[in-house]
Write a structure and sequence with these properties.
Helix content is 31%, strand content 25%. The longest helix has 13 residues. By secondary structure, it is of the alpha+beta class. The protein has two domains: 203 residues, UDP-n-acetylglucosamine1-carboxyvinyl-transferase, Chain (Alpha-beta prism); 206 residues, Enolpyruvate transferase domain (UDP-n-acetylglucosamine1-carboxyvinyl-transferase, Chain, Alpha-beta prism).
Amino acid sequence: MARIVVKGGKGLKGSVTVSGSKNSTLPIMAACLLSTDECVLHNVPSLEDVRVMEEVLKKLGAKVKRENDSLIINPRSVDCCELPEALTRKMRASNLVMGALLGRFRKAKVSYPGGCAIGSRPMDLHIKGFRLLGCEVNEDRGYIEAEATCLKGREVLLDFPSVGATENIMMAAVGAEGTTIIRNAAREPEIVDLQSFLNRMGAKIRGAGLDTIRIEGGGSLGGVEYDVIPDRIEAGTFMVAAAITNGDVLIDNVVVEHVEPVLAKLMESGVNVIRCNGGIRVRGGHKLRPVDIKTLPFPGFPTDMQPQMMALLATVEGTSVIVETVFENRFMHVDELRRMGADIRVEGRVAVVQGKKKLTGARVEATDLRAGAALVLAGLAAEGETIVEKPFHIDRGYENLEKKLRSLGADINRDEG
């Protein structure tokens, strides 16, 4: 069985380039279904989740070809609106094809999606939006089936600013007659990227990045060539990697505004941060301070960076408090960090971290994508050898993580077992 072996104690130095955003690539790939013309996406990361989405599009009838960091997607021959359970259970984002299929064909059928077991991520907000647009939605035997004779633009108020629901409703609304207004919409950079892509295809959308998005539906969409934004979570992970090893790393291909919440907490802790043109230089401080963190939807601190920051704070002397408000089960990495000597106490959605100077290498298990990244970071700072099992979780969201870390001087390798 594959595992990642990390020998800690080396300060990372050098430069690293961030790959394209996984969380932007997946909805944009789904949005290609709205067109009958070929779309070319650049800066697409080579990740397991992207490969699963390629399978999804092919199963629906699209032709997909990869050339280096580009994907060529031709949806002209799409002739199916139903996905089998075996595919949708592989990845949460597979549900994003629902909005695109409804926008183009007025029908879609998918099983409840899978993905990381970090907490409940129900489809109720997606379904609410589809129904308001005129769909009849039925849930039966683990499947969601939606169909409409005609989609009509409506006002949709989300109870929570869900990223997936915002994206799905945007794609369905592009194919609706009239105007759709999404209130309390998610504001993440990935939403803005999806709007930019759809508008390049010929859609009329404005407001992404704010809490109200307006979609003028009914227009025809054409093919487009498009560059996906850099991955802000990968950038944040390398920022923490520099800090936890007391290193000096220049991180290229970063949109600074997208990582401001992480930068703010690192700087509050005493990490040295220099904003460069198109990048960020991060140098670890000699005496870092504990900080408190509360995860929130963007522009708050991202839940996808909570495990990595916990790994860092476990090495910072003093007491830090982390409140997880987005997912109720996103502390599964705590037990694994404890194996490495971390002093962390969890009460409900609150984790109290009593930091110490050193962690100790141990055999640990990646329970989900970001937990796996956190354990690798902890291993970089720990004394001795850390073995991270089940690295396939990490492969879902990080392109060539070990190779990039080795380029910075880390002693890290993958043992295929």
